[in-house]
Amino acid sequence: MPATDTPRSYAFVLIPGYSQLGFSCALEALSLANRHPSGQTYYKWRLLSETGAPVAAYNGVRITVNGALTELDREETIVICAGEDVGSAVSKKLLNWLRHEVRRGMDYGALSSDTYVLALAGLLAGKRVTTHWEYRAALTEILPDVIIEDTLFSIDGRVFTTAGGAASMDMMLERIRADHGTDLATWVADQMVYTDPRLPDHAQRTTLKNRPQVRHGKLALAVQMMENNVEDPLSPDEISRAIALSTRQLERLFSKYMGLSPKRYYLRLRLEKARDLLRQTDLSVTEVCVACGFRSLSHFSKTYRMAYGISPGLEGDTTKLVWRGSV
User: Fold this and answer.
1) What's residue 237's pLDDT?
2) C-alpha torsion angle, residues 245, 249, 250, 252 (rounded to 10)
3) Nearby residues of 46 by Cβ (< 8 Å), 6 or more positions away
4) Taking the CB of residue 135, how many other CB atoms lie within 10 A of it?
5) I need a labelling partner for 191 at 20 to 30 A (CA). Which of 91, 115, 185, 319 fits?
6) Within 13 Å and on the Cβ side, how many CA atoms surround 327?
7) Whole-number Å distance between alpha carbons of 119 and 29
8) 323 and 142 in contact (C-beta within 8 Å)?
């Protein structure tokens, strides 16, 4: 898209407990674009909070905003900035405001776990979105009509979402490229000393083959199969056949590199997912039990208690829920 004399406008909505890293990476990309030797002001922005009061990030840093929620210009782009306790930090007033503004036709997006805010507002049905890998399992369970991608950022029509953190910078560099071309985006990346901006389909986490404990190719494949089949666990024999190893060879690999048997490692993966779902969603213990491949509620409860020293029911009751509210 060719450059124009009219700066593109952004409205960053800060919600208490927001991630300062994701917000700063996105804003700094826009700010640096305006320092380009051309002298052109490519972007402008304002920071909003629900009441207009300063907002504290999750790390305690408090930022003064430009004002309270108000009617925006139709050409502005909304960016929601929230944090871990996103569900309980979002009010009906903010959701109603967001729905009203989006209906007017503007672009809108969210950083990291903030994808859930868009879902609460009913703005993601049928959309392709992403979120931080830590919250992907929870969102997948509670948003069946939304396509949750394991990507750094996703752009689907007017809506854009990111995995948060440095991925906010990758996403904003892509938007700068789309607005004003590759030269400006490259110049901004160089100013950030970010020599290799990532494409949206770049993995969010270090790939299995690059993890220090998973150097063996067959072992990496086995672990990947386990991660992809949590709800319907595979047997060691099924995994062994799929990667062309004997069950004994698979046992040796896991013992050497993981210090666990395949069965114990697989169980740990399933329990970790169960803990995330109990902490981040309002799913019942029974629903979590099924989602993590346990066929017996009593067995699930006993195994969970042995692993974490607390029953699944108490985990859900005593932990601050991230995903409160109904979509």
Assistant:
1) 93
2) -160
3) 9, 10, 11, 12, 65, 66, 67
4) 23
5) 115
6) 19
7) 26
8) yes
For residue 46, give the nearest of 19, 18, 22, 14 by alpha carbon.
14
Domain ranges in the chain with CATH number 3.40.50.880: 8-191
Cα distances (angstroms) measured from residue 129 to each of 16, 89, 154: 23, 21, 5
In 142-165, which positions are buried (b, 16+ CB within 10 angstroms) versus exposed (e)?
bbeebebbebbbbbeeebbbbbbb
**The domain made up of 8-191 is a member of CATH 3.40.50.880:** yes
Structure-block tokens of residue 110: 């969210």
Structure tokens at 203: 């993995």
| Distance, CA of 28 to CA of 111 (rounded, Å) | 14
Q: At what angle do helices 20-33 and 182-191 cross, to 10 degrees?
A: 120
Quickly name the fold that domain 208-318 has. Answer: Arc Repressor Mutant, subunit A (1.10.10)
Q: Are 74 and 106 in contact (CB under 8 A)?
A: yes
Taking the whole predicted model, whether its pTM rises above 0.85 is answered as: no
Radius of gyration of the chain (CA): 22
Which amino acid is it at 157? G
Report H helices in 203-311. 217-228, 236-242, 247-257, 262-280, 285-291, 297-308
The residues with which 43 forms a beta bridge, in sequence order, are 8
The amino acid sitting at 13 is: V
pLDDT in tens, 177-226: 999 999 999 999 999 988 776 666 655 555 444 454 555 678 888 988 99
Residue 245 in tokens: 């190893």
Chain centroid, CA 180 distance in Å = 27
The predicted-structure confidence for 129-164, as pLDDT tens digits, reads as follows 888 777 777 777 777 778 888 888 888 999 999 987
Quote the CA–CA distance of 25 and 170 in Å, as a whole number. Answer: 9
Cβ within 8 Å of residue 52, ≥6 positions away: 65, 67, 68
**The tokens of 269 are what?**
């993966």
* DSSP letter (8 states) at residue 144: T
